[in-house]
Amino acid sequence: MIELTRRKVVREEIESSIEIILEEGSAVASHVLAWAAVDVLRGVAAARQEQTFLELLEAMVRPEMLKTWRALLRQNYNFSKHADIDPDKVIEGFDPELTNMTLLAAIEDYGRTYQQLTIPMYLFRGWLLAKSPHLLKEGAREDLIPHADQIFGKAASFSAVQSLYRELKRDRNQYLAFIPKDRLKNIEL
């Protein structure tokens, strides 16, 4: 028998979703796993009376738009779980980039909840933020992702993160060299 904790389940959901993306597997499976992690972490956060990443974002949404906001965020995930209301429905234009944003929310919630991230979580979050510097405030990129250009290259290409991930699977310690010593305590091995 295997003992499961919420932490172990969420870690596996997040890391499996990352692996599926970086190995160019099923976008749907990756999306479902990312949202499953968000859902579990929301329950853990609620029990601890903490806010999740998405709840912090929701605080900025106008109250009359909240229902629409939530429906837009979750429509692809709900579509993949439920078919009782409209079994013949078709989703047009599924954007895998939504999975990346969902994973970012899951990774941020995992870090807030457990005060640690795994190396694949750091790698994926770092790459996602490095490739989207326009999302970050001035100076935040270097604070969140020290040595981003050195790790991912100036363009932070998908092939660069794929290559790093494959190397990481062979030797996780290689990635630790890029993490400032004061942050090593935040690494869950």
Q: What keywords describe this structure?
A:
2 domains; two-stranded parallel ribbon; 10 helices; 2 strands
Structural write-up:
The protein is an all-alpha fold and 189 residues long. The protein has ten helices and two strands, in the order αααααβαααααβ. The chain has a two-stranded parallel sheet with strand order 1-2. α1 packs antiparallel against α2 (27-47), α1 (6-22) packs antiparallel against α5 (97-114) and α6 (119-131) runs antiparallel to α9. The longest helix has 21 residues, at 27-47.
Q: Layout of SSEs?
A:
Layout: H1 6-22, H2 27-47, H3 53-58, H4 66-81, H5 97-114, E1 117-118, H6 119-131, H7 140-144, H8 148-152, H9 158-170, H10 173-176, E2 187-188
Parallel strand pairs: 1-2
Helix pairs in contact: 1-2, 1-5, 2-4, 2-5, 5-6, 6-9
SSE arrangement, N to C: HHHHHEHHHHHE
Beta percentage is under 5%
Distance between the termini: 23 Å
Give the oligomeric state. single chain
Sequence of strands across the biggest β-sheet: 1-2
Please give the count of helices.
10
**What is the helix fraction of residues, given as a range?**
55-70%
Given as residue ranges, the uncertain stretches (5+ residues, pLDDT < 50) are: none
Q: What is Rg? A: 17 Å
Which overall shape is indicated by the principal axes computed on the Cα atoms? globular
SS content category: mainly alpha
